[in-house]
Design brief:
By secondary structure, the chain is an alpha/beta fold. Strands 3-2-1-4-7-5-8 form a seven-stranded mixed sheet, sandwiched between helices. α1 links the parallel β1 and β2. α5 packs parallel to α8. It starts with a strand and ends with a helix.
Length: about 260
C-alpha cells in the first residue's frame, strides 16, 4: 500500500477538483494506493464538501480525517502520515502543484530502498511552470525561499537547498520513528522533519520535480510568514541540539497524536 496525504486548510472548491483527480489516479494504478485528506479546522465548507464526496465515492481507498480547530500544516501532515496504512507514505499540496508523475516517481524511489525522499525545485533537472503574469511574483517568492533555505542550512544540520518543496515521502518505519517526536505545527514542520532525520542518521534522497504555479496568491510567501518560520528555526535548533535530542516515542505517544486529531 502507498499512502498519499493532502493537508487542507480552507482550500475552497479546489478540493473537489483534487478529489476527482486523485480518485481517477488511484483507479488506474495497478499497485494499491490510498489517499487521506486531512481537514485542518476548515471554516470554508471544505469539511462538508469532503463529507459529501466521501459518501458519494464509498471507496475505502479515499479517506477523510478532520478536527475542529486549525492546528497548522505540520500538525495536519503528522496526523495524516500516522493515520496512514501504507508502507510508503507521501504528502503533497492540495492544489496538486506537483504532478502525479512526480508523486509516482517518489513512491518508486522509496520502494527501491530510499528512506526519505523529497522533491527539490532547485534540482538541476527540475522544471517550473509559471503563467507569464505571475513571473515577477514567483521570482520574489523564489528569492525569499532561497534566503530562508540559506538560514536553515546555517542554523540546522541541513544540506538541502530546497527544504520547503511540497512533495515529500518516507517509509512507514521512518514515519513511526520520527513523527511522534516532532512539535512544529506550522510551516517549520519540513525543517524539523529534516533535522530529526539528520540527527537519527536517516539519509535523504533529493529528486527533480515539475512544479506548476497556477495562482500566485498564497498565504506562505509573505514577510510575516517568513518571520514566523525563522522563529520556528530557532525553536528547532534548541529542541534538536547535537546531543541529547529526543529518543524515539513509544506506541502510546503515537496513539495520543491520532486521538487528539
Amino acid at each position: 500500500m502507498i499512502s498519499l496525504i493532502f493537508p487542507a486548510f480552507n482550500p475552497g472548491p479546489i478540493v473537489e477538483r483534487t478529489w476527482d483527480s486523485v480518485r481517477d489516479f488511484i483507479a488506474v494504478r495497478r499497485d494499491p494506493w490510498e489517499a487521506i485528506f486531512v481537514c485542518d479546522g476548515c471554516t470554508d465548507g471544505t469539511a462538508e464538501r469532503l463529507e459529501t464526496l466521501s459518501l458519494e465515492a464509498a471507496d475505502p481507498r479515499l479517506r477523510v480525517v478532520g478536527y475542529g480547530r486549525n492546528r497548522g500544516k505540520g500538525h495536519a501532515v503528522r496526523v495524516g502520515l500516522l493515520a496512514a496504512t501504507g508502507s510508503v507514505r507521501i504528502f503533497t499540496d492540495i492544489d496538486l502543484a506537483y504532478s502525479f508523475d512526480d508523486i509516482a516517481r517518489l513512491a518508486d524511489e522509496l520502494q527501491r530502498g530510499a528512506q526519505l525522499a523529497v522533491g527539490s525545485r532547485d534540482h538541476p533537472d527540475s522544471l517550473v511552470q509559471v503563467p507569464v503574469r505571475h513571473l515577477a511574483y514567483i521570482a520574489k517568492r523564489r528569492k525569499q525561499s532561497r534566503i530562508f533555505g540559506g538560514l536553515a542550512r546555517r542554523m540546522l544540520p541541513l544540506t538541502l537547498n530546497d527544504t520547503q518543496a511540497g512533495l515529500k515521502g518516507m517509509t512507514a518505519a521512518v514515519a513511526e520513528r520520527v513523527l511522534p517526536n516532532l512539535t512544529c505545527d506550522g510551516f517549520g514542520f519540513d525543517c524539523e522533519l529534516l533535522t530529526a532525520c539528520a540527527r537519527y542518521g536517516i539519509p535523504v534522497t533529493e529528486m527533480p520535480v515539475c512544479v506548476r504555479y497556477d495562482d500566485a496568491v498564497s498565504s506562505t510567501g509573505g514577510l510575516k510568514t517568513i518571520a514566523t518560520m525563522i522563529r520556528e528555526l530557532w525553536r528547532i535548533r534548541r529542541r534538536w541540539p547535537k546531543s541529547g535530542f529526543p529518543a524515539p516515542a513509544d506506541d502510546a505517544a503515537r496513539r495520543l497524536l491520532i486521538r487528539v486529531a
